[in-house]
Amino acid sequence: MANPSHPSPGRRALLAAALAATAVLAGCARDAAPDTTFVLLDGSKQTTTDLKGKVALVNFWATSCTTCVAEMPKMVSTYDKYHAKGYEHVAVAMAYDPPSYVVNYAQTRKLPFKVAIDNTGAVAKAWGEVQLTPTSYLVNKKGEIVKRYVGEPNFAELHQLIEKLLAES
């Protein structure tokens, strides 16, 4: 049986790669969010520029993604907790997700935030060739990407970061 305090050479390499990736992502703290247009379920459009002045989470997801579905109630509670303080959330459904499934999911779960359908894949491409779901980007008031999450975020850490960003002028 493997000893977790002494990772195998393969696991050590994986941990080293993960740390290197984290270091690279830490450097993306000042990258501007890409200039994209989100087509919302009601047919209206919102752009990345519309999010300036707010702290926003752009969350790429799919109805067929079990992690996405599992994290969605936590996304809703995060939105509910911070929206009145200047927090926005845009849930971007992937191009392969049938629009009728997305509409049904958003309506039956009463998602309180904006839901967009990326039917051409252009939004996912602009945000760094997003292919894995869930992938989320936390954007500060200046429109800069502060953090990228692949997989479900650590919500306690996410909440701390949102609070810090909301406090910035």
TrEMBL record:
Residues 1-26 form the signal peptide. It comes from the Bacteria. One of its GO terms (molecular function) is oxidoreductase activity. Residues 27-167 form the Thioredoxin domain. The keyword Signal applies. The keyword Disulfide bond does not apply. Keywords: Signal. InterPro entries: Redoxin (IPR013740), Thioredoxin-like_sf (IPR036249), Thioredoxin_domain (IPR013766), Thioredoxin_ResA/DsbE_sf (IPR050553). This is TlpA family protein disulfide reductase. It comes from Ramlibacter cellulosilyticus.
